[in-house]
Amino acid sequence: MDELRQKYLGAIADAADEPTLEELRLQAVGKKGEVSLRMRELGRMTPEERQEMGPKLNALKDEINSALAAKKAALADAALNERLRAEWLDVTLPGRPRRQGTIHPVSQVTDEITAIFADMGFSVAEGPQIESDWFNFDALNIPPEHPARQEHDTFFMSRAEGDNRPPHVLRTHTSPVQIRAMQETGAPIRVIAPGRVYRCDYDQTHTPMFHQVEGLAIGRDISMANLKWVLEEFCRAFFEVEGVELRFRASHFPFTEPSAEVDIRCSWADGSLKIGEGDDWMEILGSGMVHPKVLSAAGVDPSQWQGFAFGMGIDRIAMLKYGIPDLRAFFDSDLRWLRHYGFSALDVPTLQGGLSA
Ligand code: DAH
Question: How far, in Å, CA of 357 to CA of 339, rounded?
Answer without folding.
Answer: 9
